[in-house]
Specification:
single chain, 367 residues, alpha+beta, six-stranded mixed sheet, five-stranded mixed β-barrel, 19 strands
Length: 367
């Protein structure tokens, strides 16, 4: 699931481990390499190790084992302020007693730039985040979204090659968050900055990233572009964590090439699935299928092998889609999403329907 170090890597973790007590590993044998200019998101639940990885890269935590390299040079023993990395935090971390312009000027003063150079860079950075008129204000006079823009400008003002962001939009409301997601991605790509972004929000990860590293239990479970993560999860954790997902439990009856026949628990049904994370007959498995890949109109289904009976438990109108909850093979939380189109049949609670899907959309994963 993890990257092997490559020659042209800009950021590299090689066999990195982290323990706080000398016994429990928070990060386990992490290998990861990023090319220059990539926007990579570390995604995972609380305690999965993603923030610890970011803090080791920033220099606020030290790796217990392994090497972290930036542009080919080891940085394990270089203090944070000498790594030349821009940082954006959820709590903005702005100096309250300084104006916006003074907040941005501070990292430039530390680097010994002249007053005229500082002023030019501050102006450019504030203009980039559409805050050019706010240089004279204090952080307390700004809204949350404005403060986050200033924090972003401060991370970019000294033109770092690498920017780290730790849940930077966590405190903003939904609409502002979505707007800032777009702004951050646009800026990162326009400026060619390598970005490592930490979040537990799957939508944020999918919409912003070139690649996403899904963390759980101190390891990367899968590292892939967003569409591949969603369409082709490699294990049950990734399938459940990224987006909505249906699972049916069963036992592998036969394996031929990359196709598994799975006998569903408590039924006489055998379904065909891509054998993604199963290796032998008799193995228990979870069959995984996305809600929008399930068809509720039998006439559109050509292959009887993939159809099952289902009982409608709930039919919910959600504007652009209908969300139907079904009972399928003993699972009462089987969700189907259908587009709201003029010819879409509106289902009724209690009715029995036939549902089905294509083999390529159905994946046999670990149990």
């Amino acid at each position: 699931m993890q990257d092997q170090p490559t020659k042209d890597a800009f950021v590299e973790f090689e066999r990195v481990q982290k323990s706080y007590d000398g016994e429990t590993l928070v990060v386990k044998d992490l290998n990861l390499s990023m090319p220059k200019g990539e926007f990579l998101t570390m995604l995972g639940p609380s305690g999965s190790g993603k923030t610890t990885c970011l803090m080791m890269l920033a220099g606020f935590e030290t790796a217990t084992h392994g090497d972290i390299r930036l542009d080919g040079r080891p940085i394990n023993n270089i203090p944070p302020h000498k790594r030349g990395i821009g940082m954006v935090f959820q709590n903005y971390a702005l100096f309250p007693h300084m104006t916006v312009a003074e907040n941005l000027s501070f990292p430039l003063e530390v680097r010994g730039l002249s007053k005229s150079d500082r002023e030019a860079k501050v102006k450019r950075a504030l203009d980039m985040v559409q805050m050019g008129d706010f240089g004279g204000r204090r952080p307390a006079q700004l809204s949350g979204g404005q403060q986050q823009r200033v924090a972003l400008a401060r991370a970019l003002v000294f033109e770092p090659e690498l920017v780290l962001m730790d849940e930077p939009l966590g405190a903003l409301d939904k609409q502002l968050r979505e707007h800032m997601q777009f702004e951050i991605t646009r800026l990162a790509h326009e400026l060619g900055i390598t970005t490592v972004y930490v979040t537990h929000d799957q939508t944020e990860a999918l919409t912003m990233s070139d690649r996403v590293a899904v963390f759980d239990d101190g390891r990367i479970q899968q590292l892939a572009p967003p569409d591949e993560l969603y369409e082709a999860p490699q294990n049950s954790f990734v399938a459940q964590f990224i987006g909505e997902n249906n699972t049916l439990e069963g036992v592998v009856k036969s394996l031929e090439g990359d196709v598994a026949m799975v006998h569903l628990d408590g039924t006489n049904h055998v379904v065909e699935a891509k054998a993604v994370n199963v290796s032998q007959v008799g193995e228990r498995t979870r069959v995984s299928i996305r809600p929008e890949r399930v068809e509720t109109d039998p006439e559109r289904l050509q292959d009887e092998a993939h159809t099952l009976n289902a009982e409608v438990l709930e039919f919910i109108y959600m504007g652009d889609i209908f969300r139907t909850r079904l009972r399928v093979a003993g699972n009462d939380d089987f969700i189907v999403k259908t587009r709201n189109a003029p010819d879409t049949v509106r289902l009724k609670k209690g009715e029995t329907i036939r549902i089905g899907w294509l083999t390529e959309d159905c994946r046999a994963l670990d149990a």
